[in-house]
Specification:
- There is one protein chain.
- This protein is an alpha+beta fold.
- The chain has 3 domains: 138 residues, Gyrase A, domain 2, CATH 3.30.1360.120; 84 residues, Aminomethyltransferase beta-barrel domains (Alpha-Beta Plaits); 75 residues, Aminomethyltransferase beta-barrel domains (Elongation Factor Tu (Ef-tu), domain 3).
- Helix content is 19%, strand content 34%.
- The chain has a 6-stranded mixed β-sheet. The protein has a 6-stranded antiparallel barrel with strand order 14-17-16-15-18-19. It has a 5-stranded antiparallel β-sheet with strand order 5-6-7-4-8, with helices on one face.
- A hairpin with a 5-residue loop joins strand 5 and strand 6.
């Protein structure tokens, strides 16, 4: 198992470590609910250094990305970020990822930890002349500082005017006395905040400085358990649960990152165009439980007659709502908001209802 540079700090803080995507990662420190609510109400600090980073450079960098990703990379400009996915040529998703544009001929891709090798192989397979690729995943650490008080905390550590940054933008500058930190206004929690990319050798210093600056604001370290419940309250997809090689971006509700312009010539374009026009047999939807119960991945979704109409892909007890929530694929005719459904939990069919996301 690999370990991030912050592993000793997690152990010292009493984190419960679990295997995740080939790494030993903190699932929680003092409790998932406590950490979840800290992020919603004040601030939390996550180690997500297991994520992958690829550099894409050269005169054909944009052309290459236009061919392998679903979104329209031509809409980016230096300092901007785009959420997108890698279609697999069979109607499914290799991975969902972020594309950062540094310069006209320089981009960074941020990919899921569990898919680093698969994504890298895909990029190499489709590499064209005029494109230089570099896998920097083992050199870069990533800290996510999330919550409504994060801007106040970080402004003590940087001369950069964080308040002027727009969502899905980034700058490179000094943070906590460290030069050349990539400061990105993205997030996977819906609570606001920043993600900070730094050389491995500076990761411990950055973590410690942020923890100290955040003491008076209620900032605490948060693990992957809270990261999962936070993203689920927002209805955000998790690769391996809600999207994978068998799910299309259209049925996953990601049509907004699937651009079918003339400038785009990518795998599955014709298939996804047909799905956009004619719809899909199943759709990823959010639902709330009607009774106190927790839906889990793999549980069947049923209609009133007990017939299986779909499957749960993610589920939890929402720490904010204090009720069971989930995501799942359902047949198109059951996908309207307000539709009553049931979740098969052991020997019971527990009532639920299709609802809008985000849940909060």
């Amino acid at each position: 198992m690999k370990r991030t540079p912050l592993y000793p700090l997690h152990i010292a803080a009493g984190a419960r470590m679990v295997p995740f995507a080939g790494y030993e990662m903190p699932i929680e420190y003092d409790g998932i609910t406590l950490e979840h609510l800290a992020v919603r109400n004040s601030a939390g600090l996550f180690d997500v250094s297991h994520m992958g980073e690829f550099w894409v450079k050269g005169p054909n960098a944009m052309r290459f990305l236009q061919r392998i990703t679903s979104n329209d990379v031509s809409q980016l400009s230096p300092g901007k970020i785009q959420y997108t996915c890698l279609p697999n040529g069979r109607g499914g998703i290799i991975d969902d990822l972020l594309v950062y544009q540094y310069e006209e001929e320089k981009y960074m891709l941020v990919v899921n930890a569990s898919n680093i090798q698969k994504d890298w192989d895909w990029c190499l397979q489709h590499k064209m002349e005029g494109v230089e690729l570099e896998n920097a995943s083992d050199q870069i650490s990533l800290l996510a500082v999330q919550g409504p008080k994060v801007e106040e905390i970080l402004k003590e550590l940087t001369p950069i005017d964080l308040s002027s940054m727009h969502p899905y933008s980034f700058v490179t500058g000094e943070m906590a006395g460290i030069a050349e930190v990539i400061i990105s206004k993205t997030g996977y929690t819906g609570a606001g905040g920043f993600e900070l990319y730094v050389d491995n050798r500076d990761a411990v210093k950055l973590w410690q400085k942020i923890m100290k600056a955040g003491e008076s604001y209620g900032l605490i370290p948060a693990g992957l358990g809270a990261r999962d419940t936070l993203r689920l309250e927002m209805g955000f997809c998790l690769y391996g649960n809600d999207i994978d090689e068998t799910t299309s971006p259209i049925e996953a509700g990601l049509g907004w990152i699937t651009k079918l312009t003339d400038e785009k010539a990518f795998a599955d374009k014709e298939l996804l165009q047909d799905q956009k026009v004619n719809g899909t047999e199943r759709i990823l939807k959010g639902f709330k439980m009607g009774q106190k119960a927790i839906p889990r991945q793999g549980y069947p979704l049923l209609n009133a007659q007990g017939e299986e109409i779909g499957v749960v892909t993610s589920g939890t007890m929402s720490p904010v709502l204090k009720e069971g929530i989930g995501l799942g694929y359902v047949q198109k005719k059951y996908a309207s908001v307000g539709t009553p459904i049931f979740v098969g939990i052991r020997n019971r069919n527990v009532p639920a209802q299709i609802t809008k996301t985000p849940f909060i």
